[in-house]
């Protein structure tokens, strides 16, 4: 019962407050991780494993220790858990970034839309046309729905506050160290692989959520036929199922560092536009309410029976 209530409280806090504007713990963690990289970087996988453990283990253990200490007071334990999960999810922030792109597209302000989507994706947005900007934003909503929302909810439901912290820190390190650049190819290998492992189950549950709440037959077909072609083993199912659920065409070539890179096509149907962004946001939002409903159905009866 406390787990489901903490999940609901965290989602409510995120909806009301959004991410902290000042002193977000993840910002401090980012600085800490950057210092670790500068101090311990070696062009070896073992160095990356050591750096990952040095960055993540102390914080996860600290949260686990505090959770254990307050466990004798259920109300305090629930408050702590809800606050930790609130800091681990970014549903409102994702929506705010995506809506900025949507509003600019509806105003036919392509430059503003490019600038807004540039805060969501790593591709070169200056070369994108209107449909490509809409596609980039829609893809980001679908993928980050898994990374910034559902993944944290899953690991919180499984392992409580330490699980949410473990997942969010691992996801952050993947975003910092998981690139296949000459400097990070070996050092960042552990960050990328650990994030992949932690997302195996939640990514597929997210894909299933998108399918259930959208055009299910199309979503499942795209998941089965298109996801294996995507480089990422977890982003593939999420984005293919999401594109199919929305019946929109995503994927395709995108510019990175001045070069247009070929990417598989995702989904089917209409070309993306501002409506695709708002539809993707609704899909994620309905998915959050579905997960909360499942949490209460799965957890509350056991608590009442006890």
From TrEMBL:
<comment type="pathway">
    <text>Cofactor biosynthesis; adenosylcobalamin biosynthesis.</text>
</comment>
<dbReference type="Pfam" id="PF03186">
    <property type="entry name" value="CobD_Cbib"/>
</dbReference>
<keyword id="KW-0169">Cobalamin biosynthesis</keyword>
<feature type="transmembrane region" description="Helical">
    <location>
        <begin position="148"/>
        <end position="170"/>
    </location>
</feature>
<keyword id="KW-1133">Transmembrane helix</keyword>
<comment type="function">
    <text>Converts cobyric acid to cobinamide by the addition of aminopropanol on the F carboxylic group.</text>
</comment>
<keyword id="KW-0472">Membrane</keyword>
<keyword id="KW-1003">Cell membrane</keyword>
<dbReference type="InterPro" id="IPR004485">
    <property type="entry name" value="Cobalamin_biosynth_CobD/CbiB"/>
</dbReference>
<comment type="similarity">
    <text>Belongs to the CobD/CbiB family.</text>
</comment>
<feature type="transmembrane region" description="Helical">
    <location>
        <begin position="288"/>
        <end position="304"/>
    </location>
</feature>
<keyword id="KW-0812">Transmembrane</keyword>
<feature type="transmembrane region" description="Helical">
    <location>
        <begin position="49"/>
        <end position="66"/>
    </location>
</feature>
<protein>
    <recommendedName>
        <fullName>Cobalamin biosynthesis protein CobD</fullName>
    </recommendedName>
</protein>
């Amino acid at each position: 019962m406390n787990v489901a209530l903490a999940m609901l409280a965290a989602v409510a806090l995120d909806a009301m407050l959004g991410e902290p504007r000042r002193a977000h713990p993840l910002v401090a963690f980012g600085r800490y991780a950057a210092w670790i990289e500068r101090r311990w970087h070696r062009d070896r996988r073992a160095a990356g494993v050591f750096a990952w453990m040095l960055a993540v283990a102390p914080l996860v253990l600290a949260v686990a220790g505090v959770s254990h200490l307050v466990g004798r007071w259920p109300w305090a334990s629930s408050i702590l858990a809800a606050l930790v999960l609130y800091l681990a999810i970014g549903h409102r922030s994702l929506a705010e970034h995506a809506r900025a792109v949507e509003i600019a597209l509806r105003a036919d302000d392509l430059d503003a839309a490019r600038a807004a989507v540039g805060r969501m994706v790593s591709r070169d947005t200056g070369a994108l046309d209107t449909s490509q900007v809409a596609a980039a934003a829609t893809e980001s909503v679908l993928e980050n729905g898994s990374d910034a929302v559902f993944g944290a909810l899953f690991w919180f439901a499984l392992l409580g506050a330490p699980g949410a912290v473990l997942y969010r820190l691992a996801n952050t390190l993947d975003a910092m160290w998981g690139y296949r650049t000459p400097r990070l190819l070996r050092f960042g290998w552990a960050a990328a692989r650990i994030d992949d492992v932690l997302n195996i189950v939640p990514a597929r549950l997210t894909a299933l959520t998108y399918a259930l709440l959208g055009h299910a037959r199309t979503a499942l077909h795209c998941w089965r036929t298109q996801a294996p072609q995507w480089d990422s083993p977890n982003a593939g199912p999420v984005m293919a199922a999401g594109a199919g659920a929305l019946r929109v065409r995503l994927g395709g070539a995108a510019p990175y560092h001045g070069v247009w890179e070929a990417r598989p096509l995702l989904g089917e149907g209409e070309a993306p536009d501002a409506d695709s962004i708002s539809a993707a946001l609704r899909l994620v939002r309905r998915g959050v309410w579905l997960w909360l409903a499942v949490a209460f159905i799965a957890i509350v009866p056991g608590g009442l029976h006890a």
